[in-house]
Amino acid sequence: MTAIARPKNLWLGRWGFVLAATGSSVGLGNIWKFPYMTGEYGGGAFVMVYLVCIVAIGVPVMMTEIALGRRGRGSPIDAIRRVARESGRSGLWSGLGWMAMLCGFMILSFYVVVAGWAVSYLWKSLSGGLTADSVEGMAAIFGANNANPWNLGFWSTLVTVATMAIVGLGVQAGIERSVRWMMPGLVVMLVVMIVYAIFSGSFGAGVQFLFAFDPGKLTGQAILAAMGHAFFTLSLASGAILTYGAYLPAGQSIGRTTLMVAICDTLVALMAGLAIFPVIFANGMDPASGPGLIFMSLPLAFQQMPLGGVIETIFFLMLTVAALTSAISMIEATVAWLNESHGLSRARAAWGVGILLWIVSTLAMLSFNVGADWKLAGRHFFDWLDFLTSRFLMPLGGLGTALLAGFVLRRESLEVELGLPSAIHALWRFTIRYVCPVAIVMVFLDALGALNADFDWRWLAMVLALALLAEVVLARLTRRA
Ligand code: TRP
What angle do CA 58, 83, 235 make, to 5 degrees? Predict the structure, then answer.
């Protein structure tokens, strides 16, 4: 069987896709969001659930998205419609693509604000504005940076313009080139910071906090947050990975690629945790300080390190680049769609979307100053964007993707694309058909408080085990000679 449409843009090198997908997934989610959420939800228990979600939901869903993208060769809307029609199913499944595009746009609207923090800290670092002798002092700097809408707006606007400029030019060249040096650089920076933390921070306390599993701390909300974050950090269900998959050359292994991306992403998140929490405990800071966590804690550590000033500047530079390579991927789906299906040039599409993005992100930015009181049900606009996408749109998108791949499409369709050995394929299929949908629905029910406390999990485990057995047997029986 051949692919349905012929690809126009493909990644250049053998590593092109891995680099770009890693660039998309490694970002503020790993270095800013993961630590502060871990802090808010009490540490090890959250980390554990997050890791389980990466393996059991994130990896299979990512494989599916890449396979859908490559088979449909297009933006999420077009690719999903083609793949569904090819299996003789309704083109309405492309609604999943619409949802993904909306989700990517909403995420980007608050992401550019956080990326703006990173750029402003890069600037402060260069101009010597990041000096304070206590956590409170650093918190004051963070607060002052947010308080002036013109200042904060300047930085988020800068990020918006940079993102659109790169996407307008076409992602391949720009991304492949920047990620190639940025990823190793980021890892080196994190290693330097971990070494510092080992010698000068409360390293034991940090490790304990990150990895001590205390099931008592697990609430339905924490589990939903961990699952949502697994989607967020891998850039799933928002068009990014699917669109990048559309540019993946035919011969490359989707399974291996996915593993590489997921492992890099997880390692960077855990390294960020190891770099940050020792500093937090050594300085008596509250790990549950929220979104400002890394901006208040790390500069304090940099000040005390030998060559700290230089390291600080390089760190915020890396953070900025990591944020940009992610931001680009969030809007690529929309730009690709306007370009392919509506004949707009990439540049026009990028600037058009950019204007809309600028308006929405400016509203999000105002949540930190002028609009501090504009709350709905206790949340700012900024918080709403994050909450709706991570807790609802992404898990639901993942559920839809799993159902589409597991039950709606013809079996051969993605089987050919994935090209896995039969036992592994059976495992993937089982996960996509049962584990992902059941897990996502259960987590929702649990977060809504609809699950009984004495729900007997053994039943569920048994049913799932039987389903797995059936899948494996079926795979054996239907194996082609
Ligand atoms: N994964 C990125 C991060 O961890 C964020 C991101 C990039 C993203 N593209 C996305 C999140 C698409 C959701 C959807 O920072």
Answer: 25
Model confidence at 384, pLDDT cuts 50, 70, 90, reads very high
- The boundaries of the domain holding residue 274 are 14-479
CATH number at 309 reads: 1.20.1740.10
Residue 3 located in a structural domain: no
Residue entry with tokens 């940050």? 276
Alpha carbons 32 and 290: distance in angstroms, whole number: 10
What pTM did the predictor assign? 0.90
| Dist. CA 118 → ligand 1 center (Å) | 16
Our CA dihedral for 193, 198, 202, 207, rounded to 10 degrees, sits at 90
Write the residue with the smallest CA distance to atom 8 of ligand 1: 235
d(CA 315, CA 292): 16
Whether 390 is in the pocket of ligand 1, judged by its Cβ within 6 Å, is no
End-to-end CA distance of the chain: 17
Considering the domain boundaries, does residue 201 fall inside one? yes
User: Is 4 part of any domain?
Assistant: no
At 478 the pLDDT is 72
**What is the per-residue pLDDT across 226-258, written as a single tens digit (0 to 9) for each?**
999 999 999 999 999 999 899 898 888 999 999
